[in-house]
Amino acid sequence: MSQSKSPSAALLCAVALLSLATACAGADSTAATHTPRPPTGTASSAQQPTTTSTTAITTASTTRSATGGRTTSGADATRCHTSELRASVGRNNPGAGQENFPIVLTNVSSSACTLYGFPGAAFVDASGKQLGPDPKRASDSSPMTVTLAPGRSAWAGLTFTNPEVSEARTATPASLVVTPPDERDPLMVGWTGGKVPVAGNASSVFLTTFSSGTGA
Q1: pLDDT in tens, 109-119
Q2: Which residues have C-beta within 8 Å of that of residue 92, sequence separation ≥ 6?
Q3: Number of neighbouring beta carbons within 10 Å of residue 130
Q4: Which end of the chain is flanked by fewer CB atoms within 10 Å, N or C?
Q5: Does residue 154 register a pLDDT over 60?
Q6: How does DSSP assign 9-57, residue by residue?
């Protein structure tokens, strides 16, 4: 009896095992089918604007640091620097009680550059001490950009009332200190124009903006 029942029991066990394996396989297949996936391109689309924005901010910050917070124009990019210029004072052209001297800057570099605006100027004695107040800017003088090719010049006017007419207190400078527009380093020119007003009546000295040429 025990031998006749053994094959049936074995067959039942085999069927049970087969059913269990089939159920497990179905469960794995269902789980794999429903695994969520991110939409195509979502990760790259979300990251791309962030990368672009970061680059733009970094570039703008670098530009502001490099330019000191101001926009660089074409004139700034080719501005004449003190090291590229030679200064001189032209001959006096007096008239109507006024003394009129041209301050001349000449481009001694091998490249073209530009001047825009007023020079800085001051009379000094032999020890370098300034004589009189700083010259004033003429209110009727409008700045323009002057392009200097190598060897070319521009001039700005230096004007004051003849001290014999104004009876201003005077001094005789040893030199005129000239600073090109937007520069800090000055140029020194020997002064041979005689006495200049330094205090008193009508003692102001005026400057005009640069124009092309030597003012002769």
Answers
A1: 999 999 999 99
A2: 99, 100, 101, 193
A3: 13
A4: N
A5: yes
A6: HHHHHHHHHHHHHHHHHHHHHHHHHT---PPTTHHHHHHHHHHHHHHHH
With a threshold of 0.70, does the pTM exceed it? no
Answer whether 156's CB lies under 8 Å from 103's CB: yes
Instruction: Tally the residues of the chain.
Output: 216
CA distances from 205 to 68, 95, 138 (A): 33, 15, 9
Other beta carbons less than 10 A from residue 117's beta carbon: 17
Cα separation, 99 vs 203, whole angstroms? 12
Strands 205-207 and 136-137: parallel
Spatial separation of the C-alpha atoms in residues 89 and 205, rounded to whole Å? 15
The answer to whether 105 and 214 are in contact (CB under 8 A) is no
Helix/strand/coil for 191: coil
Residue 146 and residue 78 in contact, taking contact as beta carbons nearer than 8 Å: no
DSSP structure class, residue 82? G
Per DSSP bridges, beta strands 187-190 and 175-179 are antiparallel
Distance CA 113, CA 203 (A): 34
Contact 149, 106 (CB under 8 A): no
